[in-house]
Amino acid sequence: MNRIGLLTGGGDAPGLNGILEAACRVLLRSGHEVIGIRDGFEGIFNERTRSITAGDIENLHSQAGTFLGTSNKSGTAGREAEFLEKYKKLRLDGVIVAGGDGTFSGLKAFEKDVRMIGVPKTIDNDLSGTEITFGYDTACSVVADAVDALRATADAHRRIIVVEAMGRTAGWIALGGGMASYADVVLLPERPYDQIKLVEFVKARQAEGQRGLLIVASEGAHAKDGNASVAFNVAGAPQAERYGGFAWSLARFLESETGWEARHVVLGHLQRARQPTPTDRFLTLAMGVEAARMAMEGAWGQCTVYRSGTVMRAPITDLMGPARLVPPEHRWVKILQSLGSFV
Ligand code: F6P
Protein backbone atom coordinates (compact mmCIF):
# COMPACT_ATOMS: atom_id res chain seq x y z
CA MET A 1 0.00 0.00 0.00
CA ASN A 2 1.25 3.45 -0.92
CA ARG A 3 0.53 6.83 0.59
CA ILE A 4 -0.29 9.16 -2.30
CA GLY A 5 -0.77 12.91 -1.99
CA LEU A 6 -3.15 14.98 -4.11
CA LEU A 7 -2.73 18.71 -4.68
CA THR A 8 -4.66 21.22 -6.81
CA GLY A 9 -2.82 24.49 -7.51
CA GLY A 10 -3.41 27.82 -9.28
CA GLY A 11 -6.76 29.26 -10.33
CA ASP A 12 -9.60 26.74 -10.10
CA ALA A 13 -10.90 25.21 -13.33
CA PRO A 14 -14.12 23.27 -13.93
CA GLY A 15 -13.09 19.62 -13.89
CA LEU A 16 -10.67 19.71 -10.96
CA ASN A 17 -13.16 17.79 -8.85
CA GLY A 18 -13.47 15.22 -11.63
CA ILE A 19 -9.70 14.63 -11.47
CA LEU A 20 -9.93 14.24 -7.69
CA GLU A 21 -12.87 11.85 -7.77
CA ALA A 22 -11.49 9.70 -10.59
CA ALA A 23 -7.95 9.46 -9.17
CA CYS A 24 -9.14 8.82 -5.60
CA ARG A 25 -11.62 6.17 -6.64
CA VAL A 26 -8.94 4.23 -8.52
CA LEU A 27 -6.39 4.58 -5.69
CA LEU A 28 -8.81 3.78 -2.86
CA ARG A 29 -10.25 0.75 -4.69
CA SER A 30 -6.72 -0.64 -4.90
CA GLY A 31 -6.18 -0.14 -1.18
CA HIS A 32 -3.89 2.90 -1.25
CA GLU A 33 -4.00 5.72 1.25
CA VAL A 34 -4.83 9.16 -0.24
CA ILE A 35 -3.79 12.37 1.47
CA GLY A 36 -5.37 15.60 0.27
CA ILE A 37 -3.22 18.73 0.52
CA ARG A 38 -5.35 21.81 1.16
CA ASP A 39 -5.17 25.08 -0.81
CA GLY A 40 -2.32 24.26 -3.20
CA PHE A 41 1.24 24.99 -2.01
CA GLU A 42 -0.20 26.76 1.04
CA GLY A 43 -1.27 23.36 2.42
CA ILE A 44 2.36 22.23 2.39
CA PHE A 45 3.73 25.42 3.93
CA ASN A 46 0.95 25.55 6.55
CA GLU A 47 0.85 21.76 7.03
CA ARG A 48 -2.82 21.44 6.18
CA THR A 49 -3.71 17.98 4.90
CA ARG A 50 -6.47 15.43 5.34
CA SER A 51 -6.91 11.75 4.70
CA ILE A 52 -9.50 11.16 1.97
CA THR A 53 -12.19 8.51 2.19
CA ALA A 54 -14.50 7.14 -0.51
CA GLY A 55 -17.41 9.12 0.99
CA ASP A 56 -15.52 12.41 0.64
CA ILE A 57 -15.28 12.24 -3.13
CA GLU A 58 -18.61 10.70 -4.08
CA ASN A 59 -20.19 12.57 -7.03
CA LEU A 60 -17.74 15.45 -6.88
CA HIS A 61 -17.11 15.23 -10.63
CA SER A 62 -20.10 17.38 -11.61
CA GLN A 63 -19.18 20.30 -9.36
CA ALA A 64 -17.02 23.30 -10.22
CA GLY A 65 -14.29 24.42 -7.80
CA THR A 66 -11.97 21.99 -6.02
CA PHE A 67 -12.79 19.96 -2.96
CA LEU A 68 -9.21 20.45 -1.70
CA GLY A 69 -9.15 24.22 -2.14
CA THR A 70 -6.49 25.96 -4.20
CA SER A 71 -4.44 29.14 -4.34
CA ASN A 72 -2.76 31.22 -7.03
CA LYS A 73 -1.20 33.60 -4.50
CA SER A 74 1.95 31.85 -3.36
CA GLY A 75 4.80 30.21 -5.22
CA THR A 76 7.82 28.35 -3.88
CA ALA A 77 10.50 30.84 -4.98
CA GLY A 78 12.82 31.73 -2.12
CA ARG A 79 11.17 29.14 0.15
CA GLU A 80 12.52 25.96 -1.47
CA ALA A 81 14.20 24.52 1.65
CA GLU A 82 11.09 25.07 3.79
CA PHE A 83 8.90 23.51 1.08
CA LEU A 84 11.04 20.39 0.88
CA GLU A 85 11.32 19.99 4.64
CA LYS A 86 7.55 20.26 5.10
CA TYR A 87 6.81 18.05 2.11
CA LYS A 88 9.06 15.32 3.54
CA LYS A 89 7.19 15.47 6.85
CA LEU A 90 4.08 14.26 4.99
CA ARG A 91 5.84 10.90 4.35
CA LEU A 92 4.24 10.53 0.94
CA ASP A 93 5.36 7.97 -1.61
CA GLY A 94 4.50 10.52 -4.26
CA VAL A 95 2.05 13.25 -5.18
CA ILE A 96 -0.38 13.85 -8.03
CA VAL A 97 -0.51 17.56 -8.86
CA ALA A 98 -3.18 19.21 -11.00
CA GLY A 99 -2.00 22.69 -11.85
CA GLY A 100 -1.12 25.30 -14.42
CA ASP A 101 2.03 27.19 -15.37
CA GLY A 102 2.44 28.85 -11.93
CA THR A 103 2.19 25.47 -10.19
CA PHE A 104 4.55 23.60 -12.51
CA SER A 105 7.13 26.38 -12.64
CA GLY A 106 7.01 26.33 -8.81
CA LEU A 107 7.75 22.58 -8.85
CA LYS A 108 10.66 22.79 -11.29
CA ALA A 109 13.16 23.06 -8.42
CA PHE A 110 11.93 19.77 -6.88
CA GLU A 111 12.06 17.50 -9.91
CA LYS A 112 14.71 15.31 -8.29
CA ASP A 113 13.48 15.37 -4.69
CA VAL A 114 9.71 15.05 -5.05
CA ARG A 115 8.15 12.06 -6.80
CA MET A 116 5.31 13.61 -8.72
CA ILE A 117 2.78 13.12 -11.50
CA GLY A 118 1.39 16.16 -13.28
CA VAL A 119 -2.08 16.82 -14.63
CA PRO A 120 -2.37 19.97 -16.81
CA LYS A 121 -5.09 22.41 -15.76
CA THR A 122 -6.14 25.91 -16.80
CA ILE A 123 -9.24 27.44 -18.33
CA ASP A 124 -6.84 29.55 -20.44
CA ASN A 125 -5.79 26.45 -22.45
CA ASP A 126 -2.25 27.83 -22.75
CA LEU A 127 -0.18 25.21 -20.96
CA SER A 128 2.73 23.83 -22.95
CA GLY A 129 2.93 20.10 -23.67
CA THR A 130 -0.77 19.41 -24.13
CA GLU A 131 -3.19 20.34 -26.90
CA ILE A 132 -6.08 21.01 -24.58
CA THR A 133 -6.63 21.58 -20.86
CA PHE A 134 -9.76 20.80 -18.92
CA GLY A 135 -11.87 23.78 -17.93
CA TYR A 136 -11.34 25.36 -21.33
CA ASP A 137 -14.45 23.89 -22.94
CA THR A 138 -16.59 24.99 -20.00
CA ALA A 139 -15.14 28.52 -20.11
CA CYS A 140 -15.89 28.73 -23.85
CA SER A 141 -19.46 27.63 -23.20
CA VAL A 142 -19.91 30.47 -20.67
CA VAL A 143 -18.67 32.98 -23.26
CA ALA A 144 -20.82 31.55 -26.06
CA ASP A 145 -23.95 31.46 -23.88
CA ALA A 146 -23.35 35.08 -22.83
CA VAL A 147 -22.90 36.30 -26.40
CA ASP A 148 -25.98 34.38 -27.58
CA ALA A 149 -28.05 35.94 -24.79
CA LEU A 150 -26.65 39.45 -25.18
CA ARG A 151 -27.57 39.55 -28.87
CA ALA A 152 -31.21 40.00 -27.87
CA THR A 153 -30.62 43.12 -25.81
CA ALA A 154 -28.01 44.47 -28.24
CA ASP A 155 -30.52 44.15 -31.10
CA ALA A 156 -33.37 45.55 -29.02
CA HIS A 157 -31.42 48.74 -28.20
CA ARG A 158 -29.25 48.98 -31.34
CA ARG A 159 -26.08 48.69 -29.30
CA ILE A 160 -22.58 47.38 -29.47
CA ILE A 161 -21.82 45.05 -26.55
CA VAL A 162 -18.22 44.20 -25.72
CA VAL A 163 -17.86 40.93 -23.81
CA GLU A 164 -14.58 40.57 -21.91
CA ALA A 165 -13.28 37.01 -21.55
CA MET A 166 -10.42 35.75 -19.39
CA GLY A 167 -7.03 35.19 -20.99
CA ARG A 168 -4.14 37.49 -20.15
CA THR A 169 -1.59 36.57 -22.80
CA ALA A 170 -3.47 33.75 -24.53
CA GLY A 171 -6.68 34.39 -26.44
CA TRP A 172 -7.97 30.80 -26.63
CA ILE A 173 -11.12 31.46 -24.57
CA ALA A 174 -12.15 34.54 -26.57
CA LEU A 175 -11.39 32.72 -29.81
CA GLY A 176 -13.25 29.50 -28.91
CA GLY A 177 -16.18 31.32 -27.28
CA GLY A 178 -16.32 33.88 -30.09
CA MET A 179 -16.37 31.17 -32.74
CA ALA A 180 -19.05 29.17 -30.95
CA SER A 181 -21.29 32.26 -30.88
CA TYR A 182 -20.39 33.65 -34.35
CA ALA A 183 -19.24 36.91 -32.73
CA ASP A 184 -18.89 39.90 -35.07
CA VAL A 185 -15.49 40.88 -33.66
CA VAL A 186 -12.94 38.80 -31.72
CA LEU A 187 -9.90 40.50 -30.22
CA LEU A 188 -6.94 38.46 -28.95
CA PRO A 189 -3.71 39.44 -27.16
CA GLU A 190 -1.74 37.60 -29.84
CA ARG A 191 -3.24 39.75 -32.63
CA PRO A 192 -2.97 43.43 -31.61
CA TYR A 193 -5.61 45.17 -33.70
CA ASP A 194 -5.46 48.20 -35.94
CA GLN A 195 -7.80 50.81 -34.41
CA ILE A 196 -8.56 52.48 -37.74
CA LYS A 197 -9.49 49.18 -39.39
CA LEU A 198 -11.67 48.19 -36.45
CA VAL A 199 -13.57 51.49 -36.61
CA GLU A 200 -14.00 51.10 -40.39
CA PHE A 201 -15.37 47.58 -39.88
CA VAL A 202 -17.85 48.72 -37.23
CA LYS A 203 -18.96 51.70 -39.35
CA ALA A 204 -19.52 49.40 -42.34
CA ARG A 205 -21.79 47.16 -40.26
CA GLN A 206 -23.59 50.27 -39.01
CA ALA A 207 -24.10 51.48 -42.58
CA GLU A 208 -25.56 48.09 -43.51
CA GLY A 209 -28.23 48.65 -40.86
CA GLN A 210 -27.07 46.00 -38.40
CA ARG A 211 -28.90 46.57 -35.11
CA GLY A 212 -26.60 44.99 -32.52
CA LEU A 213 -22.90 44.15 -32.74
CA LEU A 214 -21.20 41.63 -30.45
CA ILE A 215 -17.49 41.84 -29.68
CA VAL A 216 -15.62 39.19 -27.71
CA ALA A 217 -12.29 40.41 -26.37
CA SER A 218 -9.66 38.76 -24.18
CA GLU A 219 -8.89 40.71 -21.03
CA GLY A 220 -5.32 41.01 -22.36
CA ALA A 221 -6.28 42.28 -25.84
CA HIS A 222 -4.81 45.60 -26.98
CA ALA A 223 -4.40 47.85 -30.01
CA LYS A 224 -1.25 47.70 -32.15
CA ASP A 225 0.42 50.62 -30.46
CA GLY A 226 -1.12 50.03 -27.01
CA ASN A 227 -0.59 47.84 -23.96
CA ALA A 228 -2.79 45.34 -22.18
CA SER A 229 -4.85 46.88 -19.39
CA VAL A 230 -3.48 45.76 -16.02
CA ALA A 231 -5.91 46.51 -13.18
CA PHE A 232 -3.77 45.56 -10.17
CA ASN A 233 -1.04 43.22 -8.94
CA VAL A 234 -1.20 40.38 -6.42
CA ALA A 235 2.01 40.62 -4.41
CA GLY A 236 3.93 37.35 -4.18
CA ALA A 237 1.81 35.50 -6.77
CA PRO A 238 3.70 33.53 -9.44
CA GLN A 239 1.76 35.59 -12.00
CA ALA A 240 1.21 38.90 -10.24
CA GLU A 241 -0.67 40.93 -12.88
CA ARG A 242 -4.48 40.92 -12.95
CA TYR A 243 -6.07 42.35 -16.07
CA GLY A 244 -9.20 44.47 -16.31
CA GLY A 245 -10.68 47.52 -17.96
CA PHE A 246 -10.25 46.65 -21.61
CA ALA A 247 -13.92 46.07 -22.46
CA TRP A 248 -14.94 49.29 -20.75
CA SER A 249 -12.38 51.38 -22.63
CA LEU A 250 -13.15 49.73 -25.98
CA ALA A 251 -16.89 50.37 -25.57
CA ARG A 252 -16.21 54.04 -24.80
CA PHE A 253 -13.79 54.34 -27.73
CA LEU A 254 -16.15 52.77 -30.28
CA GLU A 255 -19.13 54.80 -29.11
CA SER A 256 -17.22 58.05 -29.47
CA GLU A 257 -15.76 57.06 -32.88
CA THR A 258 -18.96 55.72 -34.45
CA GLY A 259 -21.88 57.17 -32.50
CA TRP A 260 -23.20 53.60 -32.09
CA GLU A 261 -24.20 53.27 -28.44
CA ALA A 262 -21.97 50.76 -26.61
CA ARG A 263 -21.98 48.76 -23.38
CA HIS A 264 -19.63 46.18 -21.91
CA VAL A 265 -19.93 42.99 -19.85
CA VAL A 266 -17.06 41.38 -17.94
CA LEU A 267 -17.62 37.63 -17.56
CA GLY A 268 -14.75 37.23 -15.07
CA HIS A 269 -14.90 34.32 -12.67
CA LEU A 270 -18.21 33.05 -14.06
CA GLN A 271 -15.93 31.36 -16.61
CA ARG A 272 -14.44 29.25 -13.83
CA ALA A 273 -17.62 28.70 -11.82
CA ARG A 274 -19.88 26.65 -14.06
CA GLN A 275 -20.35 22.86 -13.79
CA PRO A 276 -17.93 21.17 -16.20
CA THR A 277 -19.28 20.34 -19.66
CA PRO A 278 -19.39 16.69 -20.75
CA THR A 279 -16.25 17.27 -22.84
CA ASP A 280 -14.37 18.48 -19.76
CA ARG A 281 -15.78 15.57 -17.74
CA PHE A 282 -14.53 13.00 -20.28
CA LEU A 283 -11.10 14.60 -20.21
CA THR A 284 -10.84 14.75 -16.43
CA LEU A 285 -12.14 11.22 -16.03
CA ALA A 286 -9.53 9.89 -18.46
CA MET A 287 -6.72 12.00 -16.97
CA GLY A 288 -7.66 11.25 -13.35
CA VAL A 289 -7.73 7.51 -13.97
CA GLU A 290 -4.45 7.65 -15.90
CA ALA A 291 -2.73 9.71 -13.18
CA ALA A 292 -3.78 7.15 -10.55
CA ARG A 293 -2.52 4.26 -12.70
CA MET A 294 0.80 6.08 -13.10
CA ALA A 295 1.08 6.57 -9.34
CA MET A 296 0.40 2.87 -8.75
CA GLU A 297 3.02 1.90 -11.35
CA GLY A 298 5.53 4.36 -9.90
CA ALA A 299 5.71 6.31 -13.19
CA TRP A 300 7.00 9.41 -11.35
CA GLY A 301 8.28 12.45 -13.21
CA GLN A 302 5.59 12.06 -15.86
CA CYS A 303 2.30 13.77 -16.63
CA THR A 304 -0.92 13.13 -18.48
CA VAL A 305 -1.39 15.12 -21.68
CA TYR A 306 -3.93 15.27 -24.49
CA ARG A 307 -2.37 14.83 -27.91
CA SER A 308 -3.72 13.68 -31.29
CA GLY A 309 -7.15 12.95 -29.86
CA THR A 310 -6.09 10.87 -26.88
CA VAL A 311 -4.87 11.08 -23.29
CA MET A 312 -1.27 9.86 -23.03
CA ARG A 313 1.85 10.15 -20.87
CA ALA A 314 4.75 12.55 -21.30
CA PRO A 315 7.66 13.82 -19.20
CA ILE A 316 6.40 16.32 -16.60
CA THR A 317 8.95 18.85 -17.89
CA ASP A 318 6.73 19.17 -20.99
CA LEU A 319 4.31 21.16 -18.81
CA MET A 320 7.05 23.53 -17.66
CA GLY A 321 7.71 25.23 -21.02
CA PRO A 322 6.58 28.70 -22.13
CA ALA A 323 2.85 29.41 -22.50
CA ARG A 324 1.20 27.98 -25.62
CA LEU A 325 -0.26 31.05 -27.32
CA VAL A 326 -2.69 31.28 -30.25
CA PRO A 327 -0.60 31.35 -33.45
CA PRO A 328 -1.70 34.68 -35.03
CA GLU A 329 -2.66 32.94 -38.30
CA HIS A 330 -4.27 29.92 -36.60
CA ARG A 331 -6.88 28.03 -38.66
CA TRP A 332 -9.62 29.14 -36.25
CA VAL A 333 -8.72 32.77 -37.04
CA LYS A 334 -9.13 32.00 -40.75
CA ILE A 335 -12.52 30.38 -40.13
CA LEU A 336 -13.78 33.51 -38.38
CA GLN A 337 -12.40 35.69 -41.17
CA SER A 338 -14.24 33.56 -43.78
CA LEU A 339 -17.42 34.15 -41.77
CA GLY A 340 -16.88 37.90 -42.18
CA SER A 341 -15.87 38.56 -38.57
CA PHE A 342 -13.13 41.01 -37.63
CA VAL A 343 -10.30 39.23 -35.85
O1 F6P B 1 -5.12 31.67 -15.28
C1 F6P B 1 -6.48 31.57 -15.04
C2 F6P B 1 -7.11 32.90 -14.82
O2 F6P B 1 -8.48 32.63 -14.69
C3 F6P B 1 -6.85 33.96 -15.90
O3 F6P B 1 -7.57 33.77 -17.08
C4 F6P B 1 -7.19 35.23 -15.16
O4 F6P B 1 -6.53 36.33 -15.69
C5 F6P B 1 -6.71 34.94 -13.77
O5 F6P B 1 -6.68 33.54 -13.62
C6 F6P B 1 -7.55 35.56 -12.68
O6 F6P B 1 -7.00 35.32 -11.44
P1 F6P B 1 -7.73 35.60 -10.05
O7 F6P B 1 -8.56 34.40 -9.74
O8 F6P B 1 -6.60 35.76 -9.09
O9 F6P B 1 -8.55 36.82 -10.22
CA radius of gyration is 21 Å
Question: Main sheet?
Answer: 7 strands, mixed
Strand percent estimate: 15-25%
Q: From the helix content, strand content and strand pairing, which structural class follows?
A: alpha/beta
Average pLDDT for all residues: 97
What ligands can be seen in this structure? 6-O-phosphono-beta-D-fructofuranose
Q: Figure out the total of helices.
A: 12
Shape: elongated
Annotated CATH architecture of the largest domain: 3-Layer(aba) Sandwich
Element order: H for helix, E for strand: EHEHEHHEHEHEHEHEEEHEHHEEH
The CATH class of the largest domain: Alpha Beta
Total count of strands:
13
Helix content: 25-40%
CATH topology of the largest domain: Rossmann fold
Intertermini distance: 54 Å
Low-confidence stretches: none
Would you kindly provide a brief summary of this structure?
It is built from twelve helices and 13 strands. With 343 residues, it is of the alpha/beta class.
What would you note in describing this structure?
- There is one protein chain.
- With about 350 residues, this protein is of the alpha/beta class.
- It folds into two domains: about 5-135 and about 275-320, Rossmann fold (3-Layer(aba) Sandwich); about 135-270, Phosphofructokinase domain (Rossmann fold).
- Helix content is about 40%, strand content about 20%.
- It contains twelve helices and 13 strands.
- It has helices at about 15-30, 40-45, 55, 80-90, 100-105, 135-155, 170-180, 195-205, 245-260, 270-275, 280-295, 330-340, and strands at about 5-10, 35, 50, 95-100, 115-120, 160-165, 185, 215-220, 230-235, 240-245, 260-265, 300-305, 310-315.
- It has a seven-stranded mixed β-sheet, sandwiched between helices. The chain has a four-stranded parallel β-sheet with strand order 7-8-6-11, sandwiched between helices. A two-stranded antiparallel ribbon has the order 9-10.
- 6-O-phosphono-beta-D-fructofuranose (F6P) binds near residues 122 and 167.
